[in-house]
Amino acid sequence: QWLNSTSNGKILQLSHSLNSEAPEGTYSVIVTINERELRHSFKVEKYVLPKFDVNVKAPDEISIAHEEIQVEVCAKYTYGQPVPGSVELQVCRPLRRHAHVPRISTPEHPEGIPEVTAPCHSEMMQTEKSGCATFTIQMSAFKDAEKILQDKLNLRVKMEEEGTGITGSQSKSIEISYVVGRLSFIDTPKVYEEGSVVEGKVKAVYYNNTPIAHALVYLMMGEQWSARPLQNLTTDSEGIAAFSLNTTSHKANIQLTVRLTHISIHYTIAGETEGHVDLMYLILARGAIVMLGHENVEVKGHENVEVKGDPVAEGDVVFDLKVSPDMAPEVQVVAYAVLPSLTVIAHSADFPTEKCFSNKVSVEFFPPSAVPGEGSTLQLTALPDSLCGVSVVDQSVLIKQPKKILDADQVINRLTDVG
After folding, report:
1. Which of 27, 69, 219, 246 matches a 20 to 30 Å C-alpha distance to 83?
2. Euclidean distance between CA atoms 118 and 65, whole angstroms
3. Which residues, in sequence order, are CB contacts of 290 under 8 Å at separation 6+?
4. What is the pLDDT of residue 304?
5. Is residue 381 within 8 Å of 390, Cβ to Cβ?
């Protein structure tokens, strides 16, 4: 037990050695912060360590525009040699937790069976000499009924060793993104001479690296939320837009950002008296408001546009959102308005973000492989004055309990829970 433990940073690392005669069973680590209690459990048991590890190589995120994805499954013994055998792969896109799915009654199932089930694809393949098997999955099988499906694919892999029947399994999730392209600066200097004209280029490509031609691109200057519009550019047939910037009025570093897409809120108002309405929008991440704004829109019927005889006003409110690491793993956009009749309209949408951290950390062993008893050096790299926690455990233990080690997903989920 540790009481009133503190840390100079945001990490507190403690250790406890178990007695060799410790009873088998489930143990719990309980952390109390003020009135909040967190629990983590682990098992003490006798077991035989696994002979081999199964690794799934697949993208962490794919675009909804992808037509197919490749999944490579490799199995290696703990000493590095490939494992011969067969691999079974199952890919499913799960239903949303609270999705309303109609049910159909049949004589065999009078209580009803779901009209729509989670789409899945299964396939089996023998490993090559390298111990790997490569699968090509068609995305068309997972694009029906998207409104009730989650924006991710769940992969489950089962590997069976040839001759022994010993199996190993692994799983992985792939996020489905609705971002279909990316932007980058090319041929742009990193250092400028005061008073000179800086020339550069912006390149826009789709998810498959083909150019986005004749697209409107917004060049911005400044930090985070203070970024201001600088120039509007249009890409050519190669997806490239050139720009120039006169630095006469600049005396310090210049930070440029470029944006291709905006967040758009579409509104439709029918049967209201003419006037003006403030459309409010909030951006939330980890339970906190990170951005808010409003726009005054006019409620006025358009000619020849009516619903049941009532005039209809509609339009779009567009704004920029710069995503930062502290917004992971998703942002929520909430929009609402109070109409002249005092009726409140509202809507919200969630957008996943890349799971990343502002402080990049890496760990390497030198040499990367060694024989038993040989010395090795561990090198850890991070930002200056970083508080770092390090633990070392046998790789075979991680094969048996792959979800028990602290990783990026667990940290992100903890930060989300704390909010």
Report:
1. 69
2. 20
3. 283, 284, 327, 331
4. 42
5. no
Residue 157, class by beta-carbon neighbours within 10 Å (0-12 exposed, 13-18 middle, 19+ buried)?
Answer: buried
How far apart are alpha carbons 194 and 1 in whole angstroms?
Answer: 60
For residue 153, pLDDT over 90 is answered with yes
Model confidence pLDDT, tens digit, residues 305-359: 444 455 667 777 777 777 777 787 788 889 898 888 888 888 888 877 777 777 8
DSSP strand pairing (330-338 vs 275-285): antiparallel
Q: Which two tokens stand for residue 76?
A: 């290696």
What length does the chain have? 419
Token pair of 280 as six digits: 């409010």
Rounded Cα distance between 148 and 118, Å, is: 9
Strand ranges in 34-151 using DSSP code E only, listed in sequence order? 36-44, 52-57, 61-63, 68-77, 85-92, 103-104, 113-114, 120-126, 132-138
Extract the tokens encoding 323.
């995503």
Cα–Cα distance, 71 to 56 (Å, whole number): 7
From CA 152, how far away is CA 168, in angstroms rounded?
24
Hey, what are 415's tokens?
A: 């930060």
- Cα 324 to Cα 26, 128, 228, 287, 411: the distances in Å are 39, 42, 17, 15, 16
* Full-model pTM: 0.52
Q: Which residues pair with 29 in a beta bridge?
A: 40
